[in-house]
Write a structure and sequence with these properties.
Elements: H1 2-20, H2 23-28, E1 32-33, E2 36-37, H3 38-59
Amino acid sequence: MRDRSKGRRLFFISALFMVLLNFPLLSIFNSTVSGVPVLYLYLTVVWLACIVAIAFFINRQDPRKQKK
């Protein structure tokens, strides 16, 4: 049961980040601020957030299995 729940969460995270890295959202950030492209910053932040979210859900402990 736990593996199924973890799989659903990872699927949701993957689908969310696929939407965040899709063309309509990328075109919003296709501009520059003081000569620096905002798109590069957006891609870096989304990529790092994806890695952190996946690592958080993979390493998360089940509170029912913790020793008291």
